[in-house]
């Protein structure tokens, strides 16, 4: 709306001791009659314009603010990794175990990366682009908390063992001691170990001998052998607002050495990082290392 434009000349200031509206004696005074009649004497068009503007202001004050949608209620799922060797719980450094080949061994180091977790529903997928290092000697690392999952029913959990290419670059992960200790040699392609499984086994002469089962990406010229792999589990979980559902991931270390291929520590005790064939065997066996256990607030089926 455009209003008529008028130019006002200010009323002349006068010294009038008879004026009824005044400040202290001797101050500048303004006649009451001129002030009182100023609006009444204004042209009709101006009065109409002012009235219209006032109406618009009053209407604007009464307009309601737009209603903001309620935020989507969310909950959480926590993946809990439990390690065993066959039917026995993993005890670091002291307990001896036997694999399918007959090697007797004990575990002193177990570290590996899990990355790019996804939680799936029939009509949606919630992705978590993360790289998480698990260390069997640091219990606080054996849980992965996934927050901000919209409330509802989900039926599948998926993640990558190892690191996708965007993570697996030298210096890509925070330069803290755990990640630095997982560095993969630049001469073999750089980046990070996907897993370090180390300890001692009894050789043919029953002498304790160091073994290092390391998995990673091998680069030879333009040829890349990536030994990460994707896992998914049918898992039914009902995510509820502000609640945490727990899902067990069971990890059997003996499965690295069998099914479908037997891996003898006597044969693969040294140089396994540079051995593409040995790395291929471990990658193939890895699918059976991980299983889904109990899922709180739902159930599960084997993949």
General description of the model:
This protein starts with 31 loop residues before the first helix and ends with a strand. A hairpin with a 5-residue loop joins β3 and β4 (104-121). It contains four helices and 15 strands. The radius of gyration is 38 Å and the shape is globular. With 303 residues, it is mostly beta strands. Strands 3, 4, 5, 7, 8, 9, 12 and 15 form an eight-stranded antiparallel beta sheet that branches. Strands 1, 2, 6, 13 and 14 form a five-stranded mixed beta sheet that branches. It has two domains: 1-68, no CATH class; 75-301.
Write the layout of secondary structure elements.
Layout: H1 32-36, H2 44-62, E1 74-85, E2 88-89, E3 97-98, E4 104-121, E5 124-135, E6 143-150, E7 152-161, H3 177-180, E8 195-202, E9 208-215, E10 218-220, E11 223-225, E12 229-239, E13 244-252, H4 276-285, E14 290-295, E15 298-301
Parallel strand pairs: 1-13
Antiparallel strand pairs: 1-2, 1-6, 3-4, 4-5, 4-7, 4-8, 7-12, 8-9, 10-11, 12-15, 13-14
């Amino acid at each position: 709306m455009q209003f008529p434009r008028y130019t006002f000349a200010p009323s002349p200031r006068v010294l009038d001791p008879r004026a009824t509206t005044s400040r202290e004696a001797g101050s500048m005074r303004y006649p009451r009659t001129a002030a009182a009649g100023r609006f009444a004497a204004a042209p009709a068009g101006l009065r109409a314009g002012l009235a219209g503007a006032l109406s618009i202001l009053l209407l604007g004050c009464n307009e309601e603010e737009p209603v903001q949608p309620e935020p989507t209620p969310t909950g959480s799922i926590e993946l809990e990794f439990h390690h065993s060797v066959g039917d026995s719980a993993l005890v670091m450094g002291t307990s001896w175990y036997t694999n399918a080949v007959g090697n007797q061994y004990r575990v002193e180091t177990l570290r590996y990366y899990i990355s790019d977790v996804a939680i799936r529903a029939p009509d949606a997928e919630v992705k978590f682009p993360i790289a998480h290092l698990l260390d069997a000697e640091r219990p606080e690392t054996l849980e992965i908390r996934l927050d901000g999952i919209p409330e509802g029913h989900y039926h599948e959990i998926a993640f990558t063992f190892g690191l996708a290419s965007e993570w697996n670059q030298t210096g890509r992960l925070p330069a803290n001691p755990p990640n630095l200790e997982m560095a993969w040699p630049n001469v073999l392609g750089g980046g990070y170990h996907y897993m370090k499984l180390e300890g001692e086994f009894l050789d043919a002469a029953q002498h304790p001998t160091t073994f290092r089962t390391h998995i990673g990406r091998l680069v030879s010229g333009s040829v890349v052998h990536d030994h990460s792999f994707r896992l998914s589990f049918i898992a039914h979980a009902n995510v509820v607002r502000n609640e945490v559902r727990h899902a067990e991931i069971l990890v059997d270390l003996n499965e690295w050495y069998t099914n479908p291929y037997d891996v003898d520590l006597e044969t693969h005790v040294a140089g396994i990082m540079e051995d593409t064939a040995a790395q291929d065997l471990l990658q193939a066996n890895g699918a059976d290392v991980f299983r889904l256990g109990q899922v709180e607030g739902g159930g599960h089926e084997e993949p």
